[in-house]
Automatic annotation (TrEMBL):
It comes from Heyndrickxia oleronia. GO terms for molecular function: lipid-linked peptidoglycan transporter activity; peptidoglycan glycosyltransferase activity. It catalyses: [GlcNAc-(1->4)-Mur2Ac(oyl-L-Ala-gamma-D-Glu-L-Lys-D-Ala-D-Ala)](n)-di-trans,octa-cis-undecaprenyl diphosphate + beta-D-GlcNAc-(1->4)-Mur2Ac(oyl-L-Ala-gamma-D-Glu-L-Lys-D-Ala-D-Ala)-di-trans,octa-cis-undecaprenyl diphosphate = [GlcNAc-(1->4)-Mur2Ac(oyl-L-Ala-gamma-D-Glu-L-Lys-D-Ala-D-Ala)](n+1)-di-trans,octa-cis-undecaprenyl diphosphate + di-trans,octa-cis-undecaprenyl diphosphate + H(+). Peptidoglycan polymerase that is essential for cell division. Keywords: Cell cycle, Cell division, Cell shape, Glycosyltransferase, Membrane, Peptidoglycan synthesis, Transferase, Transmembrane, Transmembrane helix. Belongs to the SEDS family. FtsW subfamily. Its EC number is 2.4.99.28. Pfam families: FTSW_RODA_SPOVE. It is found in: Membrane. One of its GO terms (biological process) is peptidoglycan biosynthetic process. This is Probable peptidoglycan glycosyltransferase FtsW. The keyword Cell cycle applies. PANTHER family: CELL CYCLE PROTEIN, PEPTIDOGLYCAN GLYCOSYLTRANSFERASE FTSW-RELATED.
Length: 403
């Protein structure tokens, strides 16, 4: 049985995942050496060593979730416990969390930090996938089939947004909407949902206007100012994006060479986290950028393909949710680095420094591999049945002719 299971694994995802993680590890070491010494007065390999430890835990999480049957996640007991832990974790941030980069989003554990909102991404994917899979028979009944899971999604996003972490809240909300759009609802139901969203926006407009000074702080407004005119505000709000442009433009086709970045020498803030793609472009040129883009694109497209092929509604929505998480997060990060959208502080999946993000993505991709395994196993079983049926039909047909 174990041999059959191992044969059914999607090793292409495993290989791409490992290659991206190892590539990210190399680039984290290159991008963080100077920052560790100049800014934090640490050893030059400080962030590299911490990422290695996170990577070991992430590999373990990946292979555990790849081995465990994904269908166990849709049990009511598991879903209830997962929701409870997610809400407690997000609420506990406001009491026991510490502030970093103007957001109270982390629990401090010794020298390490855990960001619960990262793990809530997978919780939301599993919860929405399980609930909408169970509601297939009445999914177009608005009050019964649509609203209850949506309220949980909105509540979770609200708790994350007031930390404040609008970037992560936006990602989770976008992932949730993707699962809802792929859940099998009719267009009429989706239009009702869209109308409800507009109504909520209209109701909240006066509150947003009254609290505009708190919601639209100088830091947030500065991100839009820097986004709109990075060259005119290069000494202020546009400093990050301006230096990101310099790194992207300097790399060219071949790049300056691994470890030879100039922008990481104190010019580009957060070169090993949010702006690691700029360092990749500067040091490895278009080839390094293409490697990352092709790898992430493969994971996203493969996840969507698995979701389409999976006959189980829960597995299908789970695959689509995980692949959309990787795609949305990658788009927001790359959009900020390239100036397509304002900077949000979102890490690049599997590449940027960050233990919580890497652990969450690893566990999620492990689940995707497990769904893929079941899809392959079912396809092989179906082909075997069809072959057996054809053989029996052929034998019966020959027997009838002889008679």
């Amino acid at each position: 049985m174990l041999k059959k299971i191992l044969k059914s694994y999607d090793y292409s995802i495993v290989i791409v995942y490992i290659l991206l993680c190892l590539f990210g590890l190399v680039m984290i070491y290159s991008a963080s050496m100077v920052v560790a010494v100049q800014r934090y007065n640490f050893e030059s390999n400080y962030f590299y060593v911490k990422q290695v430890k996170s990577l070991i835990l992430s590999f373990i999480a990946f292979f555990i979730t790849a081995f465990l049957p994904y269908k166990m996640y849709k049990s009511n007991k598991f879903l209830g416990l997962m929701m409870l832990v997610s809400i407690i974790g997000l609420a506990g941030i406001f009491v026991f969390g510490h502030v970093s980069n103007n957001a109270q989003s982390w629990f401090r554990l010794g020298t390490s930090s855990i960001q619960p909102s990262e793990f809530v991404k997978l919780s939301v994917i599993i919860y929405l996938s399980a609930v909408y899979a169970k509601k297939q028979s009445y999914i177009d009944q608005f009050n019964k089939g649509v609203i209850p899971p949506l309220l949980f999604l909105i509540f979770v996003c609200f708790l994350i947004a007031i930390q404040p972490d609008l970037g992560t809240a936006s990602i989770i909300f976008a992932i949730g909407l993707t699962i809802i759009l792929c859940s099998g609802m009719k267009l009429k139901t989706m239009m009702k949902l869209f109308g409800l969203g507009l109504l909520v926006v209209l109701i909240l407009s006066p509150v947003i206007f009254l609290k505009k000074d708190q919601i639209f702080s100088e830091t947030r407004i500065g991100r839009f100012t820097g986004f709109m005119d990075p060259f005119g505000t290069k000494a202020g709000e546009g400093f990050q994006l301006y230096n990101s442009y310099l790194a992207l433009g300097t790399g060219g086709i071949k790049g300056l060479g691994l470890g030879q970045s100039v922008q990481k020498l104190g010019y580009l803030p957060e070169p090993h986290t949010d702006f690691i793609m700029a360092i990749i472009a500067e040091e490895l040129g278009i080839f390094g950028v293409a490697f990352v883009l092709l790898g992430l694109s493969y994971l996203v497209l493969r996840g969507i393909y698995i979701g389409v092929k999976c006959r189980d509604p829960f597995g299908s929505l789970l695959s689509i949710g995980i692949s959309s998480m990787v795609g949305i997060q990658a788009f927001i990060n790359l959009g900020g680095v390239s100036g397509i959208i304002p900077i949000t502080g979102v890490p690049l999946p599997l590449i940027s420094y960050g233990g919580s993000s890497l652990l969450l993505l690893s566990a999620s991709l492990g689940v995707l591999v497990n769904v893929s395994m079941f899809v392959k196993y079912e396809e092989k079983y179906k082909k075997k049945q069809e072959h057996t049926t054809m053989q029996k039909t052929s034998i019966n047909h020959r027997g009838f002719k002889v008679h």
